[in-house]
Amino acid sequence: MNQEVRREIENLRQQKTKALKARYRELFGEESRSSNQAHLFRRIAWRLQAIAEGDLSERARNRAAELATDVDLRLRPPLKFWRQLAEADATERAHQRDPRLPSVGTILTRQYQGRTICVKILKAGFEYDGRQYESLSAIASSVTGTRWNGFSFFGLKEVHRD
Known about the structure:
Layout: H1 3-12, H2 17-28, H3 37-53, H4 58-70, H5 79-95, E1 107-112, E2 115-122, E3 125-128, E4 131-133, H6 136-144, H7 150-153
Antiparallel strand pairs: 1-2, 2-3, 3-4
Helix pairs in contact: 2-3
């Protein structure tokens, strides 16, 4: 590698991302989709060396073009993919039962200020006083008038094995 290219590459190391993006635009004739400083540095350094030392042979370019036309190449997954992944993850988390919960149909009881609180475990949620609740915390808050951790309120600290 000649000294001029070496100096230019060394100067690139001190440049900020904005300057690297401008240099990338000059060398490649398009905007960079990346703002990663290390990536921009490597791409620009490669391009400078390729210009100075000679680029790929015509044969290598043709072969690369053949390979590229045979492949439907995506650089980033579509937004739809990320949305579906997030929805599937949320659905999976919603259907997972907390291992601290006893089996469906179990009645939890607790004494609170002279009252007996009885809660039935449902497949999806809980039943207390004829109403359905999404969480034990909601029931505990309803009973006490203050915020509670439902598992602590009902003494469910250990994992139940069915």
